[in-house]
Amino acid sequence: MASHLVKSAENKSCKRPREMENETSVNSQLSSLEKPDFVFSENAVPSFYKAEVLEKVLNDMSKEINLLLTKYAQILSERAAVDASYIEEFDAIFKEASTLENLLKQKRESLRNHIEAPLRLHRAHTELRAPAAVVPPLPPSTAMIIYRDLISHGPEGEGTHATVITGVDIVINHHLQETSFTKESYKKYIKVYMKSIKGRLEEQKPNRVKSFMTGATEQIKHILANFNNYQFFIGKNMNPDGMVALLDFHEDGVTPYVIFFKDGLEMEKC
């Protein structure tokens, strides 16, 4: 990250006079920082803190998270991947694909350290002004996507701004599409889907068929009893033969989770 927060000053002949005057005062601020996890070189002067720097930090954070995860894909044609490291058993039939809230919380703290330290240096620099607002913390249980509007340029090629989109991370990252069911239409769908899964298990895991059908029957009763609590999502291709994921919220009413049929998923190695 440090490379994005400093400006090289190896060629001193290229410095403006005011930059040379303020270099000492800027470097003196380093001792007052609370151990930032990046290091400024001795002859470096912080560059203007632009939106592109924050965007790069968030992109790097997203890539790091994706490298930690093993993806799952559906058995039946639709490959709605979920994050294996964050899937918990759901009554031996379901796996709950929880959001990345805990990991994102750690990353937000790291990101805040990268943002606040250079901003303090900018305020100490007479030629540089810190932006009016720092990006707010990520909402819990959501993913944030920032992209630039490259059309709305000003007369001098400026005016680019960022747009923030929030939502359930699994839904956004895997392009799931919301659909709707009545209780009767869901009963028809789930009957066909269970038959398909049973047939697949009979071919590949015959010892699993009995326990699957017993457990699935109980879980479907639970779903139907709480039918109005769920939102329904399918893959971006909206394949009618694919699995339908169910979205619900924990007891706090704000933390979402998505449930899938365990036997309708297969591991995909990255």
From TrEMBL:
Q: List the Pfam families.
A: TCTP (PF00838), TEX12 (PF15219)
Ranges annotated as biased composition (Basic and acidic residues): 7-21
At the top level, the lineage of the source is: Eukaryota
Q: Where is the TCTP domain?
A: 154-270
Where does it sit, as one GO cellular component term?
central element
Q: What Gene3D superfamilies is this protein classified in? A: Metal Binding Protein, Guanine Nucleotide Exchange Factor, Chain A
Q: Where is this region: Disordered?
A: 1-29
Record-level GO BP terms:
synaptonemal complex assembly
- InterPro entries according to UniProt: Mss4-like_sf, Mss4/transl-control_tumour, TCTP, TEX12, Translational_control_tumour_p
- Similarity annotation: Belongs to the TCTP family.
Which PANTHER family has this protein been placed in? TESTIS-EXPRESSED PROTEIN 12
Q: What is this protein called?
A: Translationally-controlled tumor protein-like
Organism (species): Monodelphis domestica
